[in-house]
TrEMBL record:
Organism: Pseudomonas fluvialis
Domain annotation HTH araC/xylS-type: ranges: 229-330
InterPro entries referenced in this protein's UniProt entry, alphabetically: AraC-type_N (IPR032687), Homeodomain-like_sf (IPR009057), HTH_AraC (IPR018060), Tscrpt_reg_AraC-type_HTH (IPR020449)
Protein name: AraC-like DNA-binding protein
SMART domains assigned to the protein according to its UniProt record, in alphabetical order: HTH_ARAC
GO molecular function: DNA-binding transcription factor activity; transcription cis-regulatory region binding
This protein's UniProt keywords: DNA-binding, Transcription, Transcription regulation
GO cellular component: cytosol
Pfam families, per database record: Arabinose_bd (PF12625), HTH_18 (PF12833)
C-alpha cells in the first residue's frame, strides 16, 4: 500500500537547503500540489507522490541532488551516472563499494563507507561536510542506498540497526516507517547495519531495468513507504483499504498466530494500539483520496466508515490540523 503519508516535518526539512540559498519555495509547493498551510501545521501530512514531486522540483530548480545542503552541488544526473557505473557488477558488495568510490571522486561530498563486521555489514555516511540542520539529507542518503541495494538484488534488505550521531528527534514516531529496525541515537556514526549474506548476492537488474528505475529515482525512493517488518506494518497490510470490512483485533491476532493479549502488549511496546493503527490508516487513506478528484468529500467520508460528513471533518481536522476542504483546495 502506498497510502503511508509524509509528515509536514519532512516537507519543511526538504526546503531548508533551498531557503538557505534564498530560493522562494512557494511556487514549488504550488507546482507539487502542496498547500503552504502544511508548513505551519505540525500535524499536517501529504501524499507520497506530492513529496516526490516536490523533491524533483527542488532538484530541477537548484540543479543539485544534494538539495542545497552540500558545500558543492551534486549536479542532476550524478545519481544516474553512478547507477550506470554499478549496474554490471557481479555482486551487491561490488556494486555498493563501486558506488561509494564513485561519490568519493567529488570534493566535499559526504563520505559513504561499506564495512564488514563479522557476520554483519555496515553502510555509513559521514555528513560532516554538510549544512544539514535537520539531518534531512544524511537520512535521505541512508534510505536511498538501502532501497537501491534492495532493488539491485530483487529483495528487501532487512535492517538490523540504524545509528545516528545526533540526539533522538521530536518526530521519532516517524522512524518506524523510515528505519524499521532497532535505532540508536548519539552514536559514533550514522549508519545502517544488515546481515553480510546480502553482499554476496548477484545483481538481478540490467541497463534496461535501470532506465525504468531512474525515471523516478531517487525521489521516488524517498517517498516510497518501506515494506516494513514491524507488527504495525503487518497489521496495516492485513487491514487493507476496505474500512467497512476491517477485521477486529481478535481476528487479526488469529491471523498473526498471537493471542489478543499478546498482540496488545506487542503494540504497546511499539508505542501504538489497534485503534490508533486504524485511525492512522483512515487518515492516510483520506489524504490519498483528497489528493485526487475522483471522489467527493462526502463519498470519501462514507468509504472510510463515517456515518456523516461532519464526523469526518472533525476527525480529519484532529488528525492533520486542516479541514478536508482546505486540504483538497489548490493554490491558483
Amino acid at each position: 500500500m502506498r497510502e503511508r503519508t509524509i509528515a509536514s516535518h519532512f516537507v519543511r526539512a526538504a526546503l531548508r537547503g533551498a531557503q538557505h540559498q534564498g530560493l522562494d519555495c512557494l511556487p514549488l509547493l504550488r507546482q507539487a500540489g502542496v498547500q503552504p498551510a502544511v508548513l505551519e501545521e505540525p500535524r499536517a501530512r501529504i501524499d507520497p507522490q506530492q513529496f516526490a514531486r516536490l523533491v524533483q522540483l527542488l532538484w530541477e530548480r537548484l540543479d543539485d541532488e544534494y538539495l542545497g545542503f552540500g558545500r558543492l552541488k551534486s549536479k542532476r544526473g550524478t545519481f544516474a551516472m553512478m547507477g550506470h557505473a554499478i549496474i554490471h557488477c557481479r555482486t551487491l558488495e561490488k556494486a555498493l563499494s563501486r558506488g561509494a568510490l564513485f561519490y568519493g571522486l567529488f570534493p566535499d561530498a559526504p563520505t559513504i563507507r561499506l564495512e564488514r563486521e563479522g557476520d554483519w555489514a555496515r553502510l555509513s555516511v559521514d555528513d560532516s561536510s554538510l549544512w544539514d540542520p535537520d539531518h534531512f539529507l544524511v537520512e535521505c542518503l541512508l534510505v536511498i542506498w538501502h532501497r537501491l541495494g534492495s532493488w539491485l538484488i530483487g529483495q528487501r534488505i532487512r535492517l538490523e540497526e540504524a545509528t545516528f550521531t545526533y540526539a533522538e528527534p521530536a518526530h521519532i514516531a516517524e522512524y518506524d516507517l523510515i528505519f524499521p529496525c532497532q535505532r540508536r541515537f548519539n552514536a559514533g556514526r550514522t549508519s545502517l547495519l544488515f546481515h553480510a549474506r546480502y553482499l554476496g548476492m548477484p545483481l538481478l537488474q540490467d541497463e534496461r531495468t535501470l532506465k525504468q528505475f531512474l525515471e523516478h529515482s531517487p525521489a521516488d525512493l524517498l517517498a516510497r513507504p518501506d515494506g516494513g517488518d514491524s507488527l504495525t506494518s503487518q497489521i496495516r497490510r492485513l487491514l487493507g483499504r476496505d474500512c467497512a470490512s476491517w477485521p477486529d483485533l481478535d481476528a487479526v491476532a488469529t491471523q498473526l498466530h498471537l493471542s489478543p493479549q499478546t498482540l496488545r502488549r506487542h503494540l504497546r511496546e511499539e508505542g501504538s494500539s489497534f485503534q490508533e493503527l486504524k485511525d492512522h490508516l483512515r487518515r492516510d487513506l483520506a489524504i490519498y483520496h483528497l489528493g485526487r478528484d475522483e471522489l467527493a468529500i462526502q463519498d470519501i467520508a462514507e468509504q472510510l466508515g463515517f456515518s456523516e460528513p461532519s464526523a469526518f471533518h472533525r476527525a480529519f481536522k484532529k488528525w492533520t490540523g486542516l479541514t478536508p476542504g482546505a486540504y483538497r483546495a489548490q493554490e491558483n
